[in-house]
Amino acid sequence: MKRLLAAAAVLATFAQAAFAGEITLFTDNDFRGARVSIDRDVYNLADIGFNDRASSLVVRSGVWQMCEHKDFGGYCAEFGPGEYRELPRFNDSVSSVREVSRGRGYDDRRGGHGGPGWRGDRDERGGRDWRDERGGPRGEAVQLFSGPRFEGAAVSVSGDFRSLNDVGFNDRAGSIVINEGRWEFCEHGDFRGQCVVFGPGRYPFLEGMSDRISSMRRVR
Fold first, then answer.
1. In a designed cystine with 139, which of 37, 128, 156, 159 is the match (CB 3.0 to 4.6 A)?
2. Which residues pair with 32 in a beta bridge?
3. DSSP string, 181-201
4. How far apart are CA 3 and CA 59, in angstroms?
5. Which DSSP symbol is given to 117?
6. Residue 42 in contact with residue 70, Cβ under 8 Å?
C-alpha cells in the first residue's frame, strides 16, 4: 500500500508539471533583450532579478495574471496564450506573476513569434475557443468590446476604419482582442488625435483610451 501511495504521489507530481503553464518575459519590445521563462507563481520578480523590467511577453500556455506590485498588489491584468509585443500599461512595471488558469498553449509550430497566438484559450465570457476546429483564428483580426474584460456588446473587424461610426462603435471600445497584425487606434476620426498601437494579444483594459477610440487601421 505504501508503495502504491508513493507511486501515486510521483505520478501526481509529473502530471502537475506536465500541465503547468509557461510565460516568458522580455526586457524590450518585440521580444528583444534579456528574457526569463516562468512556470510557477512568482510573488516578487526581484527574487529572480526581473522586477520592473518586462516590456513584452509570450504566454506559451495557461492564463497568467501580472501585477504592478509584489505579492500581486496594485493594478493587475490577465494574459492568455499568445504574443504581446508591447505592454502599454505594464511597461517596466511588473513585479509579480501567477498562473490563474491552465489550458492548452500557444501554437509555436511555425517557429519564432511570427503568428497569432490563440490555441485552446478560454476567455472570461464563457469558455469559447478562439480557434475553430481547423486550427485557424475564429472571427476577424480585431474584436472590440464595449466593456472592460471583454464584456458587453462586441464587433469583429479586419479592415481600416476612418470612423468607427461605420460599424456603430465610435467611442465605445473598453477592451480589445487582436488575433493578428499590429493596429493603430486613434481618439478622433481619420486617425487623428492621440493614437496607440497594439499587437496580437488580449487587452482587458484600455486605460486612457477607453470609450475614446474613433478610428483604427492596420500598420503591420
1. 156
2. 28
3. S-EEEEEEGGGEEEEEEE-SE
4. 38
5. -
6. no
Model pTM? 0.45
3-state secondary structure of 30: helix
Burial of 213 per CB tally in 10 Å (0-12, 13-18, 19+): buried
Q: What is the pLDDT of residues 81-130, one digit of tens each?
A: 888 888 878 889 999 999 987 654 444 332 333 332 322 233 332 333 33
Backbone angles phi, psi at 192, to 5 degrees: -105, 170
Predicted pLDDT at 140: 77
Average pLDDT in the chain: 76
Structural domains of the chain sorted by starting position, each given as residue range(s) with its CATH number in brackets? 20-135 (2.60.20.10), 139-220 (2.60.20.10)
Q: Which residues of the chain are modeled with pLDDT < 70?
A: 1-20, 102-139
Q: How many CB atoms lie within 10 A of CB 36?
A: 16
Measured distance CA(193)–CA(12) in Å, rounded:
55
The number of helices, as runs of H, and strands, as runs of E, in the chain is: 1, 13
For residues 108-136, b (16+ Cβ closer than 10 Å) or e, as one string? Answer: beeeebebbbbbebbbbeeeeebbeeeee
DSSP label at residue 215: E
